[in-house]
Amino acid sequence: MKKNSSFSNKVAIVTGSSQGIGKAIAIALAKEGAYIVLNGRNQERLSEAETELKVYTSNVISICADVSSISGSQELIDNTIKHFNKIDILINNVGVSMRGTISELNPEVFKTVFESNVLGSVNPTIHALQYIRKTKGSIVFISSLAGIRGLPYLSAYSSSKLAIRALAESLRIEEAENNIHVGLVLVGKADIAQNKQTINHDGKLITLASRDKNKVLSLDFVARSVLKNISKRKFITVQTILGKINAFLHARFPLLVEKIIIRNRDKFKSEN
Fold first, then answer.
1. What is the mean pLDDT of residues 180-191?
2. What DSSP state is assigned to residue 61?
């Protein structure tokens, strides 16, 4: 644990942090001296993550709550305040992905994805805001390169991430006078937790195949990028050179990007 880090003694909530990117962010913050609040819906995985983080800090708690619900988010924030008496950082990381064309999608897929990805960020933000105003802290939304524009076979996922961008933009303007840092991190294709699941077009969960670690971002890289976003109080962080090129081209030549995607749409179908 670093004693003189800018994160020392900061209270950080990381939603969806029992595994994967969320846990990696929590570990990185713990190494920097932050007090950590883990969150997820699986108590067993949360307990395992809490035990893992105690290698780096004794100041860690886990709160099992579904932040896509109003009551679950309220429980998370209330228990954090009861334990640590403040909130400096909220990282909205919770989310699910999906696969399938719009024509074949069970409408429940859209409902599930938006409840998790959008409401799962809206609810904690609303409940934590009054406390983060007091600390002039940070609210960071973990998004995806799929949130730059709509993509084939990822309609619900892409549109939920575009909604998150709009949410972050609105919040940043509204809270400018309160000196709250609002960050949006567009994560590139990263390593995934073992047995990570996604929602198939019929609404059933399917397990994703493991990814070649040489062809994806490491979880540690993603986590360090998030901490850099917070320490520099940046708004948008786009990971990977390819992601930055995509963002640049879409902003200036959207029809060209669309033509390229149409020509290569089968690659999106096979993407893991």
1. 91
2. E
Characterise 136 by phi-psi region: left (phi > 0), alpha (psi -120 to 50), beta (else): left
Q: Tell me, what amino acid is at 128?
A: A
Residues in the chain, overall count: 272
> Could you tell me the fold of the domain covering 11-270?
Rossmann fold (3.40.50)
- Domain ranges across the chain: 11-270
**Rounded distance between C-alpha atoms, residue 202 and residue 66, angstroms:** 23
CB atoms within 10 A of CB 86: 15
- How many angstroms separate the CA atoms of 212 and 214, rounded? 5
Any bridge partners for residue 39, and if so which? 63
**Nearest CA among 46, 47, 5, 49 for reference residue 27:** 49
Strand 205-207, strand 138-144: pairing:
unpaired
Q: Are 168 and 141 in contact (CB under 8 A)?
A: yes
Segment 70-105, tens digit of pLDDT: 999 999 999 999 999 999 999 999 999 999 999 999
- Cβ neighbours around 192 below 10 Å, total: 20
Q: What pLDDT score was predicted for residue 267? A: 80
**What is the structure's pLDDT at 195?**
67
User: For residue 125, which of 187, 161, 85, 175 has the smallest C-alpha distance?
Assistant: 175
Q: What is the mean pLDDT of the chain?
A: 92
The structure tokens listed for 72 are: 């679950």
**Residues with Cβ < 8 Å from 64, sequence gap 6 or more?**
39, 40, 41, 42, 43, 46
CA proximity to 165, closest of 139, 186, 179, 191: 186
What are residue 120's phi and psi, to 5 degrees? -65, -15
Catalytically active residues, by annotation: 157
